[in-house]
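Cross-posting from the modeling subforum.

Setting up a comparison between two proteins and wanted a second pair of eyes on the formatting. Protein 1 (sequence, then structure tokens):
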Amino acid sequence: MNFLKVDPSNYLLFACAKQDKREVQIQQEFSRSEGKDGGDDETDFEKIYNVKIWAITLRELLLFNSIYLAKTLSNIIELVTDQPNPSVFYKSFLEFDGSNMVSILSFDSRSMEYLLSDEFE
């Protein structure tokens, strides 16, 4: 998961590892002075961003498998537009190395136009 780091010196914190809720936090270390004489420095961590990792369902797995097996771009667009709720494409999965389907589908402007439409604001 090191690819999630903004800077190589950032830290990864697996904040919650329960079955239904997994969260990875990317943090930056910083120091702050406690006293006026510059004595005691306190080290702390600032959250840069969080990534929620979802557990994949059978339905989602079958949908993603269908997208990979689609023979033409029009079949992919049809699968994307047939989904009543596009949030499945925005979820991050460990099976995609912490990525999501939007980043994978970004090659197709028609799919992205549908996923980013005002209808799903």
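Protein 2 (same layout):
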Amino acid sequence: MELPLAVVAILVALVASGLALSLRTQVAQLPRADSSADVERLRQEMIDLRRDLDHAQHELEQLKAATQVVPAPPLPRARSTGLSDLREQLRAAHRESEAGSEE
């Protein structure tokens, strides 16, 4: 009974060794990328994304500023005086300026 068990153990070990070797060759055949080039590419993409984000935030701030409601200036008070009163006020002001310039 020990002999058949030993043979089965040897067969399992041989199959496991064969699988390990085949996986090792498959892993070796995978394309390897230069890690420093990948890091530099990712860094550049991050810089581009940061610039795009800053630009988008700036546009958002401009849109927020544009949508803020500015209150309308108050309407002028209604004048109770007529046009003739305004003419008299203008003439009086003109006379005062002439009198001030003669002195």
